[in-house]
Amino acid sequence: MKNSYDEMPNGNQESIQKGLGAVRYFSRNMSFGTGSEEERIARLKKEIEATDAVVIGAGAGLSTSAGLTYSGERFERYFFDFARKYGIRDMYSGGFYPFPDEETRWAWWARHIYFNRYIDAPKPVYQELLSLVKDKDYFVVTTNVDHQFQRAGFDKKRLFYTQGDYGLFQSVNSSMQKTYDNEEWVMKAMEAQGFIRDENGLFQVPESGELKMKIPASLIPKCPDDGSDVTMNLRADDSFVEDGGWHRASAAYADFLRRYESLHVLYLELGVGANTPVIVKYPFWQMTLANEKSVYACINYGEAFCPGEIANRSICIDGDIGNVFVKMK
């Protein structure tokens, strides 16, 4: 049976297919770029100014550069009690911890969602990126689920979050192919744990340092349509709900790529690691190869490289993304 989305172009699927094709085509001869860092940064700045359009592909490294780290000082400040009681060492591993009950598990997730979705990143890296591309026709495809592009002022019609959104729940009932906004629930669950709002309206640990590690059973989130249990709208397996907003964004991405596939376009990859290269990295390589007017740029700390086949039209910058943006001003 067809649903209403079957007639829409699927940018996610189309780009993944391109990426898989790229893997088979490219040799293992990787290039790490030429010229000094200053020369590469100057070249990238000039390229952004000259290009017809910018396709931004963003991974976790962009949010890390913006200060949304999952370990260290942030983790210790907001999850010190979970670390002490359960031995959890960072936010990522905590998401998989087998908590003893639902009240504790959802207390954890309320904090995890709040401090990675409902606050601005500590450093203005996303805002600096917007200042670089705001006068260009741009589109963003990202595996990040923290909503920081929209918080920084990017046009939501130019954003495609392929892997979900911390701000959404979905039902465990697979017949419910919808998502549900969780902001109101998150705020109640934060208050229930004892977090206090500061003068800016942001939740902080109280001066006493006393927090509850459980929420009341009555606050455990349920699907508003059928009362079933809910889970995060994050792509972990085939149960991930691709709702109407997801499909519209995927179609907009496909349309944007098609519009510029033979024009001067910059494929700008930021902080994409080796976990999901088929979503951004490999398709960007393939699309650069297919269009001789295009340029591929990669800014990544420790992982900036490209296939030799497109090295003459690539800019690889090994460094912190935020630092690079500052140098481009």
Structural notes for this entry:
- There is one protein chain.
- The mean pLDDT is about 95.
- The protein is built from twelve helices and 13 strands.
- A six-stranded parallel sheet has the order 4-3-2-10-11-13, sandwiched between helices. It has a three-stranded antiparallel sheet with strand order 6-5-9, with helices on one face. Strands 1-12 form a two-stranded antiparallel sheet.
- Strand 5 (about 165-170) and strand 6 (about 180) form a beta hairpin.
- With about 325 residues, the protein is an alpha/beta fold.
- It is globular.
- The chain has helices at about 10-25, 35-50, 60-65, 75-85, 90-95, 100-115, 125-135, 150, 185-190, 245-260, 280-290, 320-325, and strands spanning about 30, 55-60, 135-140, 160, 165-170, 180, 195, 205, 230-235, 265-270, 295-300, 305, 315-320.
Distance between the termini: 52 Å
SS elements, strand count = 13
* Overall pLDDT level: 93
> How much helix, percentage-wise, in residues?
25-40%
Low-confidence stretches: none
What oligomeric assembly is this protein in?
Answer: single chain
Strand portion, in percent?
A: 15-25%
Number of helices: 12
Shape: globular
**Structural class by sheet pairing and helices:** alpha/beta
Spatial sequence of strands, sheet with the most strands: 4-3-2-10-11-13
Please outline the major beta sheet: 6 strands, parallel
Succession of helices and strands? HEHEHHHHHEHEEEHEEEHEHEEEH
Rg calculated over all Cα atoms: 21 Å
